[in-house]
Design goal:
The protein is of the alpha/beta class. The radius of gyration is 28 Å and the shape is globular. Helices cover 48% and strands 12% of the residues. Strands 12-11-10-13-14-15-16-17 form an 8-stranded mixed beta sheet, with helices on both faces. Strands 1-2-3-4-6-9 form a 6-stranded mixed beta sheet, sandwiched between helices. α13 (307-317) crosses α14 (330-349) and α19 (483-497) packs antiparallel against α24. It folds into 4 domains: 5-264, 2-enoyl-CoA Hydratase, Chain A, domain 1, CATH 3.90.226.10; 300-479, Rossmann fold (3-Layer(aba) Sandwich), CATH 3.40.50; 503-585, N-(1-d-carboxylethyl)-l-norvaline Dehydrogenase, domain 2 (Orthogonal Bundle); 595-680, N-(1-d-carboxylethyl)-l-norvaline Dehydrogenase, domain 2 (Orthogonal Bundle), CATH 1.10.1040. The structure holds 3-hydroxybutanoyl-coenzyme A (3HC). The site of 3-hydroxybutanoyl-coenzyme A has 26 residues, from β5, α3 and α12. 3-hydroxybutanoyl-coenzyme A is lined by residues 22-23, 25, 58, 61-66, 77, 98, 100-102, 105, 124-125, 128, 130, 132-134, 136, 277, 280.
């Protein structure tokens, strides 16, 4: 027995239980425990079969991700797997929680797999920019066939135990709560039957059936090209499964190892692993103790049934928390409820929920015309028009109505949360909960702490974010907080640069090639040119477009023309409007610019803004900024966010680029003191 590995023998069955919280990742000590256990049971003549089971909340959650990129220690995963697979005694994997990545690959080494119905199995390495590097790409196709393996491994989608049983990914189901007993009984049955147990590596029928059919792979590549764009791992996974079909098992394993090595040393995977830990890190708040009381949130009120208020409400009813939705007029309320119902019905049409579930969710929303309905709720979120006067008025009234201790939240995206809090008698209960549009889809929730916000209110908001499936990032108060403030320079520079020569199409293409789904001009067209920059008092480029009736996708095109399928094409009319506005402003053209210059012009200022956000203490850590950009603005995950990306470019190069821009374009490009210091010290953003 070690701290981690527990060995017992029950009536001829050796039970090896690994207990390494929190998730039994296959780190060095777990590998040692496995090695010791299997050696011991191999040598024990009373043991006829072995059950491998885990303590705590889950079966092995995979290789220990924190070990990647560090010098190898102790026995390698492959060495331990070889030991298990070469053993003469049958091994049964007993699965609860999640058997993921290397954890499921370990189960595939075993002779049989039994799981409780609530368990999930899968190979999610692709989400870390990796591929299953311990035989998963060779063994899974031998069980489910190459076509399904392609889908499962490139999507990383975990499969519930019942479905896994139907697919052959597990061999039997145990009763919930009786995994150990049922696994031992299963082992006894195997021994009693006495039939030889084929190893997964020896199964050939599924891979042989696909041999000589390269169209399986070419079709898959074609279908998934858009989804895989920019990512390295999916292509390597496809190559591995091709190898599983074309080569013998050992040669396939060699190919898998080569292709894994290529990924594990890539910047893309380093970025994705950083994001994996980053998503968890943003919840850790240094000045909030882990035992800070969490307030119960059983009921929520949302003021405003517009696009934001509706999306926000959906997040809560999706997890069964009832929402009171407040509007000023019956019309607005009906419209808002109609949109929510339509969204749910669309999900039902896609098979994501049943018609009954649509009704159940709608029934959790209580529409109301007066603020009085908010009297007894635990949390009230204001999502009204973005005006300080309106917000202060609403908070003043809610202060009179909401019960003592209720959390009062604003969904403002730019305004001063402290000023809003001052409109109440309880600023300690006021916080910003900034959702990103569409609020029921985007995963970022910026939690904005005011000067007086109580720590238990902050801790509750961080916890609540997780309950509704969001990734919380804590911000302090400044205009635009983290994500909007960070990304504003990109939009500003795109609009300035388009007057200096490069076309909107060049600029959008450079952003697309970097990894954004659409560039800033295409995005403007989608949002509508009359929406952004509304109410400007002087002549603006957008104002000229609106005056010319070019409102974007919804009317007459904007920066692009659109056909009836909304396919964009360059627009001579748009270029003429741009040229005219540039002339009016007296802007000189820059001449031909390389793509790298366009990239630097748009994204170096974002990095610079990030540095300012850090040095002002608006964000806690660089990783908080990166997570905000990825979850709130779809910054390509394989770039790791602007701060991680800046490290890969090299901070001295960014400082130099900003200085050149400063000399030509003005002081807006002056590099932040923190950026200059880190570059000088040869450091990166931590
Ligand atoms: N390695 C190291 N640490 C891990 C880990 C792993 N594989 N999986 C989870 N952790 C850590 C988390 O960072 C977190 O640490 P923290 O408490 O200090 O923040 C802690 O374990 C708990 O994790 P979660 O907060 O995510 O707990 P949940 O209960 O919400 O989720 C889980 C559990 C579903 C297992 C989820 O953690 C998960 O998806 N883990 C990653 C699974 C994965 O990708 N496995 C493949 C790894 S790569 C691999 O196996 C390569 C092989 O093919 C060679």
């Amino acid at each position: 027995m070690t701290d981690i590995a527990h060995f017992t023998v029950e009536d001829g069955i050796g039970v090896l239980k690994i207990d390494s919280p929190p998730v039994n990742a296959l780190g060095v000590n777990v590998r040692k425990g496995l090695q010791e256990g299997f050696r011991r049971f191999a040598a024990d003549s009373t043991v006829q079969a072995i059950v491998l089971i885990c303590g705590g909340r889950t079966f092995f959650a995979g290789a220990d991700i924190s070990e990647f990129g560090k010098p190898p220690q102790g026995p390698g995963l492959q060495e331990v797997f070889d030991l298990i697979e070469a053993g003469a005694k049958p091994v049964i994997a007993a699965i609860h929680g999640t058997a993921l990545g290397g954890g499921y690959e370990l189960a595939l080494i075993c002779h049989a797999r039994i799981a409780v119905p609530s368990a999930k199995v899968g190979l999610p390495e692709v989400n870390l920019g990796l591929l299953p590097g311990a035989g998963g790409t060779q063994r899974l196709p031998r069980i489910v066939g190459p076509e399904l393996a392609l889908d499962l491994i490139t999507s990383g989608r975990p499969v519930g135990a019942k479905q896994a049983l139907a697919m052959g990914m597990v061999d039997a189901l145990a009763e919930e709560g009786r995994l150990r007993e049922d696994a031992i009984a299963f082992a006894r049955k195997l021994i009693a039957e006495g039939r030889p147990l084929p190893r997964v590596r020896d199964r050939q029928d599924k891979v042989e059936a696909a041999r000589g059919k390269p169209e399986i792979f070419s079709k898959f590549r074609q279908q998934q090209a858009r989804t895989f764009r920019g990512f390295k791992a999916p292509e390597n996974i496809i190559k591995c499964i091709e190898a599983a079909v074309d080569l013998d098992f050992d040669a396939g394993m060699k190919r898998e190892a080569e292709l894994f090595r290529e990924l594990v040393t890539s910047t893309e995977s380093a970025a994705q692993r950083y994001v994996f830990f980053g998503e968890r890190e943003t919840s850790k708040i240094p000045d909030i103790a882990p035992d800070t009381p969490i307030l119960p949130i059983r009921t929520v009120g949302v003021i405003g049934a517009g696009t934001m208020g509706g999306g926000i409400s959906m997040n809560f009813v999706n997890v069964g928390i009832p929402v009171t939705l407040v509007e000023m007029s019956q019309d607005a309320l009906d419209r808002g409820l109609g949109v929510i119902r339509k969204n749910y019905e669309a999900s039902a049409r896609r098979g994501k929920m049943t018609a009954a579930q649509v009704d159940e969710r709608m029934a959790l929303i209580t529409p109301s015309l007066g603020l009085d309905a908010l009297a007894h709720l635990d949390l009230v979120i204001e999502a009204v028009y973005e005006s300080m006067d309106v917000k202060k008025d609403v908070f003043g009234k809610v202060d009179q109505i909401a019960r003592p201790g209720a959390i009062l939240a604003t969904n403002t995206s730019y305004l001063d949360v402290n000023e809003i809090a001052a409109a109440t008698s309880r600023p300690e209960s006021v916080i910003g909960l900034h959702f990103f549009s569409p609020a029921n889809v985007m995963r970022l929730l910026e939690v904005v702490r005011g000067e007086k916000t109580d720590t238990s209110v902050i801790a509750t908001a961080m916890k609540l974010a997780k309950t509704i499936g969001k990734v919380p990032v804590l911000a302090r108060v400044c205009p635009g907080f983290i994500a909007n403030r960070l990304m504003t320079p990109r939009g500003r520079q795109a609009e300035a640069l388009v007057l200096q020569g490069p076309s909107p199409y060049d600029i959008d293409r450079v952003m697309y090639d970097y990894g954004f789904a659409v560039g800033p001009f295409q995005m403007s067209d989608i949002v509508g040119l009359d929406v952004i920059g509304r109410g400007a008092t002087e002549r603006t480029l957008r104002g000229d477009f609106v005056a010319a009736g070019r409102l974007g996708q919804k009317k007459n095109g904007g920066f692009y023309n659109y056909d009836e399928n909304r396919t964009p094409s360059p627009s001579p009319e748009a270029l003429a409007l741009i040229a005219d506005f540039a002339k009016h402003k007296g802007v000189a053209t820059l001449g031909a610019l390389a793509d790298a210059d366009i990239l630097a012009r748009l994204l170096y200022p974002v990095v610079n803004e990030g540095a300012k956000i850090l040095e002002e203490g608006i964000a806690l850590r660089a990783v908080d900024i990166d997570i905000a950009a990825i979850m709130g603005y779809n910054w390509p995950v394989y770039r790791g966010g602007p701060m991680f990306w800046a490290n890969t470019v090299g901070l001295p190069k960014i400082v130099e680029g900003l200085r050149k821009l400063e000399a030509r374009e003005g002081p807006a490009f002056a590099p932040a003191a923190l950026l200059v210091r880190l570059a000088h010290e040869g450091k990166g953003f931590a």
